[in-house]
Amino acid sequence: MDTYGLIGKTLKHSFSKRFFTEKFEREGLQARYELFELDTIGLFPALWQSQPGLRGLNVTIPYKTEVIPFLDWLSPAVEEIGAVNCIRRGSHGLEGHNTDVLGFERSLREQWQGEWPEEALILGNGGAAKAVAFVLKNLPGIQQIRTATRSPKAPGECDYASLNRLDWATCRLIVNTTPLGMYPEVESLPPIPYEILGATHLAMDLVYNPAETAFMRAAAAQGARVANGLDMLIYQAEAAWEIWTRD
């Protein structure tokens, strides 16, 4: 039986196992999806050796970057982003892909209305933020992508205190890629000037649990449109399945 799974350090609240188990049952597929908690990424080669039917893996925190040296081939998106969340045993050996890119772009295109904004703001600078930036820079009309983080280090990053000086009339898309507001710390939220937001803004949160985060509530209270990360999660899972099963 073909096996698929998820690697990470703590996987108690995995969305992926439920999603794929239900998918396999619904479509009558002879396959299983397992959770593989690894204390260190050094256990990754032994996992493949111990699971001869393993065809593909999802990857979550903290191994999206650490797994790369163990792979034989990387997609162009992974080469640029530096993060892997999907692995396939394919013609190139162990292949590294990033389906966050596909999931976020599809979700964003469904949520956005009208012409793309001149500027976009990304909150956070982790692997998910890099996937979001990869999508945004390839959209027409977006001329400036800003990244806000508590401790700016890379070029183009700013701290939250400087956001008051943004031109919020042109920066109409805000994407939260931080874990702030994720269960169980549901009352935490990024420290941005929510009072400046309005009906022309879209505030997207990659967090999906809870369904309405504190970030979304604060933005919606000012009239902004909001969306959570559930659609992106589903779309990236579907993209992973397409990658695993293609010729």
Describe the structure.
This protein is α/β, with parallel strands linked by helices. The chain has seven helices and twelve strands. α4 (99-111) packs across α5 (127-136). The longest helix has 16 residues, at 230-245. The mean pLDDT is 95.
Fill in the keyword field for this structure.
247 residues, alpha/beta, six-stranded mixed beta sheet, six-stranded parallel beta sheet, 7 helices
What is the topological layout?
Layout: E1 2-8, H1 15-27, E2 31-37, H2 44-50, E3 54-59, E4 73-74, H3 76-81, E5 86-90, E6 93-97, H4 99-111, E7 119-123, H5 127-136, E8 144-148, E9 157-158, E10 171-176, E11 202-205, H6 214-220, E12 225-227, H7 230-245
Parallel strand pairs: 1-2, 1-3, 4-6, 7-8, 7-10, 8-9, 10-11, 11-12
Antiparallel strand pairs: 3-5, 5-6
Helix pairs in contact: 4-5, 4-7
Report on the biggest sheet. 6 strands, mixed
Number of helices: 7
- Strand arrangement across the biggest beta sheet: 2-1-3-5-6-4
The fraction of residues assigned to DSSP E strands is 15-25%
Low-confidence stretches: none
Structural class category? alpha/beta
| Total beta strand runs | 12
Précis, in short:
29% of the residues lie in helices and 23% in strands. It has 247 residues and is of the alpha/beta class.
